[in-house]
Hints:
The chain is built from seven helices and no strands. The chain is mostly helical. Helix 1 (3-21) packs parallel to helix 6 and helix 4 (80-100) runs antiparallel to helix 6 (117-136).
Amino acid sequence: MTGIGLFIVLVTLLTLQAACRGGAPERLASAAMLMATIATVLSNTAMAHAFRSVEWEVLWIDVSLLSGLVLIALFADRFWPMWVAALQGFAVAAHGARGIEPQLLPYSYWLVLGKLSYPMIAILCIAIERHQWRKRRGYPEAAWSRTAWPDHEPANGNGQSGALAIRIRTQDRGAQS
């Protein structure tokens, strides 16, 4: 089995694992990685000339994946998306390095683009298992950060959001008068 075939199998298994055992951030990230993998394979038809210059199609796929992973990192109530987005950021930076320095060896360019995805898969596998670990122990775990939403106000002691609590208190004062 070729390296790309092995990688496709790994990402597909990761997506299945995330679908069965992961939370929403894990499912979204693995689906995004699978779509980016398929798009990269479909766009990279001229393998004979691959990595001799900037791979523009792969660059746009990598930028799209980076955007999705950054959005997940911004809104997920997890730490791992920041690591995965950072690794994808290195891959995007490699495209820039190749564009700035055309003398960069094609092997170096291929190595960065092709091999950074394996630690991303490992981090996501660990994240899925940690999600299951917390779930088995009954720890509360929100998939998305409540403080990430702009209209969120901190809860008061009654578990009500600040705006709701103010409205209720105002209505209570009107009823007491």
